[in-house]
Design brief:
This protein is α/β, with parallel strands linked by helices and 242 residues long. It has a single domain, classed as Metallo-dependent phosphatases (Purple Acid Phosphatase, chain A, domain 2). It is built from eight helices and eleven strands. The protein starts with a strand and ends with a helix.
């Protein structure tokens, strides 16, 4: 079974549309989003529409959680809070209801999906965790692989039962070892923070036990123009200028 895993679209419908084209060409069996579909970007309503139309389930990200529970917006820096306030005005009531149904995590076909960190944290960042904490979580985790987002940087943690090995992911296919457990960061469709402006996601093939890391070109200037047009903070546009 081939599963496409996308994350952190962040209202960037221009990037998302190109990723969807690539997913369709890859003939995957299903696609799952790891949350933060909205926030920062100029077209949150369009992103939610595309998730709906393409029957893509999503776990909740911290941006959706903060919209659902406004008191949590205090957790964000002032620019992100301004972005969230603007994002709400760009969404319909039906889309706001839609994101209220997202769960903290999802488990399908011996795979775990969560925005921040397993087993079900929305807000914990991978880089906040010590090696010992990561090992303890992986020992307890029933699934072979947990896919996460949140940091906007693709990377993989391999656990052989004793030691973890952590490294960045590069474009292309890699073979996974069925004897190991993994935490895999799918990166970001709409706002990567690795110095490379391509939209990024991964495809996992459970039959071949292979992970395909995808880099997708899109019209970055179109998204930047729309960020300015809707009045979002300039920082969100500058982050896309790699």
């Amino acid at each position: 079974m081939k599963t496409a895993i996308i994350s952190d679209i962040h209202g960037n419908a221009t990037a998302f549309k190109e990723v969807l084209k690539d997913i369709n060409n890859a003939a995957v069996d299903m696609t799952i989003s790891l949350g933060d579909n909205i926030g920062y970007g100029p077209e949150p309503e369009e992103v939610i529409r595309l998730l709906n139309e393409n029957h893509i389930p999503s776990v909740i990200g911290n941006h959706e959680m903060a919209i659902n529970r406004p008191k949590l917006q205090a957790w964000f820096n002032p620019i992100a809070r301004t972005s969230l306030e603007k994002t709400i005005t760009l969404m319909s009531e039906s889309s706001l209801r839609y994101i209220r149904n997202f769960n903290n995590c999802m488990v399908l076909n011996n795979l775990r999906f969560v925005h921040g960190f397993p087993p079900g944290s929305v807000t914990l960042y991978l880089f906040e965790m010590t090696e010992k904490q990561i090992i303890n979580v992986l020992i307890k985790m029933n699934e072979k692989i947990c896919f996460i987002g949140h940091t906007h940087v693709q990377e993989i943690i391999t656990f052989d039962g004793k030691t973890i090995f952590q490294k960045p992911l590069k474009e292309g296919a890699i073979k996974l070892d069925d004897k190991n457990k993994y935490i895999i960061n799918a990166g970001s469709v709409g706002q990567p923070r690795d110095g490379n402006a391509h939209a990024k996601y991964v495809i996992f093939d459970s039959l071949s036990n292979e992970l395909d890391v995808r880099y997708i070109s899109y019209d970055v200037q179109d998204t930047i123009k729309k960020i300015y047009q809707v009045g979002l903070p300039e920082q969100h546009a500058l982050r896309l200028m790699k």
